[in-house]
Amino acid sequence: MNPLELTRARPGAARTVTFDGRPLTALPGQSVAAALWAAGVTAWRSTRGAGRPRGVFCGIGVCFDCLVTVNGVPNQRACLVPVRPGDVIRTQEGTGRDDG
Amino acid sequence: MAEGPRLAVVGAGPAGLAAALAAAARGVRVTLVAAAEQAGGQFYRQPAAALGAARPQALHHQWRTWERLRAGLGRHLATGRLTHLTDHHVWCVAADPVSGTFGVHALRGPAQEEGVTVRADAVLLATGGYERVLPFPGWTLPGVVTAGGAQAMLKGGLVLPGRTAVVAGSGPLLLPVATGLVTAGARVAALVESAGPAALLRRAPALAAQPGKLAEGAGYAARLLRHGVRTLPGHTVVAAHGTDRLEAVTVAALGREGHLRPGSARRIRCDTLAVGHGMLPHTDLAETLGCTLSGTAVRVDDEQRTDVPGVWAAGEATGVGGAELALAEGHIAGCSAAARLHGSAPAPRRSAAAARARRRLREFATALDAAFEPPAGWAGRLPDDTVVCRCEEVTAGEVRRAVDPLGAGDLRTVKLLSRAGMGWCQGRMCAPAVAGLAGCPLTAGRRPFARPVPLGVLAGLPDTEAGPPDAD
Amino acid sequence: MVGAACALYAARTGLDVRVVDRGPVAGGTTGAGEGNLLVSDKGPGPELDLALMSARLWAALADELGTAIEYEPKGGLVVASAPAALTALRDFAAGQRGAGVTAVPVGADRLPELEPHLAPAMAGGVHYPQDAQVMPALAAARLLRASGARMHVGHTVTGVLRAAGGTVYGVRTDRGDIHAPAVVNAAGTWGGDLAALAGVRLPVLPRRGFVLVTEPLPRMVRHKVYAADYVADVASDSAALRTSPVVEGTAAGPVLIGATRERVGFDRSLSLPAVRALAAGAIGLFPFLERVRALRTYAGFRPYLPDHLPAIGPDPRAPGLFHACGHEGAGIGLATGTGQLLAQALTGKTPELDPAPFRPERFDTDGGDVR
């Protein structure tokens, strides 16, 4: 059993996105975070202090732990932003703005 | 175009929907302003339409109530009496003393980069709540998520965080989360609840007064049993282990005074930990409007009015109590707002049933709160090197040093002296832990911006807002 | 902050010091400040002399306390967008140089070297290497700790004890009396209320300011940067909203944008016109800020006196009472010099600066005794 089977989901055609250059398939309607989880990815940010990995924590847009860079725009909440075909998703380092 | 007074309802969860439907049915033009793409809030969170889920109810509870709300929403949308602004993230509600109206300022779209202002004659805040998580070593590892977060990702994105989960913490949310995960195909290695059977028994009379609620809990428990899920009451997560992601947790039994029972620690392998210790209300918009708070919730009267004229509040924002209570409060608030906007008082008979339900459910919530209070001594056990403020990476030791020797004794001063609470989430995640470490009461923070706002949006605010600057 | 500096310098002269505050450390205007240590916004006169003295003392404290107070001698950069404003700015800077300020004219072509992200098409500017910054709450807490003073935080002063002859001999608090031959009024914006408890008049009034704090950024703003209009706003007597923001990066990452000036009493409620003006001014200086997010905003209340100078020194109307308040928006910067002058007054030493312009009783026309 998986969630798609459980809810008898018939999603639209899968789309391709990249995560740190690696192609992934994502389902339409999913958030960036859901698409990454579905691909087995749980971390996509490293903190600006200790450089530690982070991913989803609160899942509802409150904690800002899941910040990610999508199509060059940093500090997007992966749990809120819907995934779009061709999205270029990158691990966000620090502030996401070319920290030296 | 519909006519009549305008009410802006912020939030489309159970409280906001019930309020919007009640007000729209009573001749008010309602604008429902909500962050999600679909109505439902956290409790009735729906999968995106594009996922084509034929049976989303397999992950839900009280589905019939949802169908009724959804049908009501559809009817009022069709007549034009109700407008539903989705993907509108409200960052501030401001009263305009000159015109006597309110400006609801929101950011539009998932990127939240475009500003938009909705005007209304009255505002109803149904902003819901978010989860409280008390820290422990390893709680920042990827794979550790809030219990509500795991549920939201499952209901909304139809995804699981991993294969083997431990569900832990305290409170009534843990049972449905564990049940949801296991039904959707995850293995739940353990359900770890810090409240022991004794704490629940002490509240038994108040809890037993709600047979429906108890049956609901028993239903979840039976399903977990069928799936062979081990439940560990009176236990707590001591640490999460892993280098770059979660690999295991250590749990231990709690003694009566909150100490860990020697020799009770055990390690459980898992790739997911869904953890939560109850909920906290979203009060930022109300606080900025000048509404009085009591503790961490917005204070309201019998009609769900705040003490600021023209501002109502309902649901978790006025005190955490669950979806059923939110529905009752929302209905009462919507009826009151409609009556007051038409210059009359609400007829008590029309919402008598809701008022009875509200009283009963608030009593139940109070009993639950007492039964599921955080385990004693958790703050003292926290090692100095554990990160407490996830955004600014402030450790427990740094918070303790802000208290002694630097002299902080409240949340604001700890923040100023340690940076705990200064980051992206503005202390929403760490405030309970900081309060515990500093030994001060948890109070609602002051956050004039309920969410981060691009400076370009601030610079482009309409001129008319609140007129020219006031001067003495 | 001013109280902490008074405690530190008084303790260093050997006095036994107790600090009484009804709130927590840095609970008033200090906690809402940006930590500006500015000489650049002051024209020749007593305030500038105090600022220069304070700047030297801050630098010495920074050597002692290290990074704990986040002292950054980053320097200030004042820019003018139009040639007329630049001429006025250069004239102002020439006067400051005469008073001992280092003020280096910067041509338009050299501005990008100092601030790579500054808006293009500025007419020019002046660089002030003596401007610096501290994190005010940390500075207050660290100075208090370094002073070794006994702390009575959370204790409210309810009265000033005066003997039959009028001499001040301590304070009454909600938790008992504290006897002392000298009482220093460092109550900031509430300094007028404390003076009234001693029966003397000190017309301190609040001037509200909002500060915007952005998301954490890499160092994209290197100095304290503001437009030449700022100096005119600081000196202004207008009650209405005035904004010419000071934009600066911080060690911790966020950019601070402050601050508005309005006289609206102690009203803390959010003013959208104020934050709109701050945001617009900051984007005018640094266009990249348009898409940067503000995480929070907060208000503080600057304590101002009618002539925009602080009250520092003994009060002849109430022997034993000393004042150190009314620094308006410069209290962090002027704290060290104020503390030093106060310590000199407490111990009967010759003050380093002429105390006359700061006399607390200077606003009296009728003796000032309100009892």
TrEMBL record, chain A:
Pfam families from the UniProt entry: Fer2_4
Keywords from the UniProt entry: Oxidoreductase
Protein name, as recorded: (2Fe-2S)-binding protein
Organism of this sequence: Streptomyces rameus
UniProtKB/TrEMBL annotation, chain B:
Domain FAD/NAD(P)-binding per the UniProt entry, residue ranges: 6-325
Domain (BFD-like [2Fe-2S]-binding): residue spans on this chain: 387-436
Keywords attached to this entry: Oxidoreductase
InterPro entries the UniProt entry points to: BFD-like_2Fe2S-bd_dom (IPR007419), BFD-like_2Fe2S-bd_dom_sf (IPR041854), FAD/NAD-bd_sf (IPR036188), FAD/NAD-binding_dom (IPR023753), Metab_Enz_Cyan_OpOx_G3PDH (IPR051691), Opine_Oxase_asu/HCN_bsu (IPR017224)
Transferase in keyword set: no
Keyword Oxidoreductase found: yes
PANTHER family on file: ANAEROBIC GLYCEROL-3-PHOSPHATE DEHYDROGENASE SUBUNIT B
Protein name according to UniProt: NAD(P)/FAD-dependent oxidoreductase
